[in-house]
Amino acid sequence: MPNNGRITEVKSVQREPGLRRRFFSFKATQIILLISGILEALIALRILLKLIGANPASPIVGLIYSFSSVFLIPFAGLVASPTIGGMVLEISSMFAIVVYALAALGVERLTCVIFSRPPRTSVTRVTETNPGERHTVP
Question: Nearest-CA neighbor of 42 among 103, 104, 96?
Answer without folding.
Answer: 96
